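Q: What structure does this chain adopt?
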Amino acid sequence: MRKMNTIARECMIEFEEKKSKFIGYVKPVSTKGEAEEFISTIKMMHPSATHNCSAYKVFDDGQEYFKVDDDGEPGGTAGKPMGEILNLLEVDNLVVVATRYFGGVKLGAGGLVRNYAKTAKLAVQEAGIVEYIERKKYVLDFAYDRVNEVDSVISSEGGEVLEKEYLDRVTYRVSVEKGTAEKLREIRDIVIFEI
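A:
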């Protein structure tokens, strides 16, 4: 796989331009489904917004998904400039949504292009650009006396616990790098499988 960059974290920025309020949301994602779900979440958060425009670029199982959406703005004035910023900054596996509340002063096509591009650029810069490291999801099943050891490996390697279940044994759903999964496999009495 080629070397890729993505963003370090999910974040939000906002600014005003001629009384229009622009709010930029950006999130690192690893599937097209995650990107679409994030866009839906932002739209639900801002049902009264004038527009919720978006762009995402995701490499998922060797397939590239690149989608832009003007969400009712004049064609090519919102999603496309946001997508161009993602290409210009050479970032992948992320989604950006620009929410706009119209302030009563028309910005014109050029103003829309500039401000949607600015929203994407500020959001990506605020999130921080980092090298993309592929993570996979695993289910871990282990005894209660291994919880501290498992937690220690996951946190020291920058992994993420997505779900925890405590029954006869402990079950975690995690998102970790391949190397972290190998370290977890070294723990005695642990069952690991990729999902």
